[in-house]
Amino acid sequence: MSDQPNPGEFRVARLRSACNDCGLVQLCLPVSLETEDVDRLDQIVQPRRPIKRHEHLYRTGDGFGAIYVVRTGALKTYTLSESGEEQIMGFHLPGEVVGLDAINEGSHPCGAQALETTTVCEVPFERLEALSTRIPG
Fold first, then answer.
1. How far apart are CA 37 and CA 16, in angstroms?
2. Do the beta carbons of residue 99 and residue 66 sit within 8 Å?
3. Residue 37 zone, left/alpha/beta (φ > 0; ψ -120 to 50; rest)
4. pTM of the prediction?
5. Which residue in 66, 41, 85 sits closest to 57, CA to CA?
6. Where are the beta strands (DSSP E) in 59-114?
7. Residue ranges of domains in the chain
8. Each residue's pLDDT tens digit in the chain (137 positions)?
9. Which fold has domain 7-134?
10. How far apart are CA 90 and CA 28, in angstroms?
């Protein structure tokens, strides 16, 4: 038997510490959360592969399933006018949440595109909703 860790175990351990090891934890998580509550939230957060410049995190009309927290880089959200011109809705920097505008309708009313190589954490909304009933903070 090898002393080398199983790659799957390493990945699970890395995912499990997504929030606890993040330098933005003070920006994107409520200060009032207890350590065990952060651990619970940490279990549902899914770090995603880097999004390259000009790639989309999501496009207008894509179905809603998660909200996203910018870890590194920058995103812009935008819509297209009737004449096809891009209208910038906002710029999103590390620690900011994107995708909240899709909660009500169930689809994204705008697109989100990387302005530079960007990493985000994906927070599945159904799991976040279920967790919010167990964490009063």
1. 13
2. yes
3. alpha
4. 0.75
5. 66
6. 66-72, 75-80, 86-92, 97-98, 111-114
7. 7-134
8. 444 444 443 333 433 455 666 666 555 655 556 667 667 776 777 777 899 999 999 999 999 999 998 989 999 999 999 999 999 999 999 989 999 999 999 999 999 999 999 999 898 998 878 877 877 66
9. Jelly Rolls (2.60.120)
10. 18
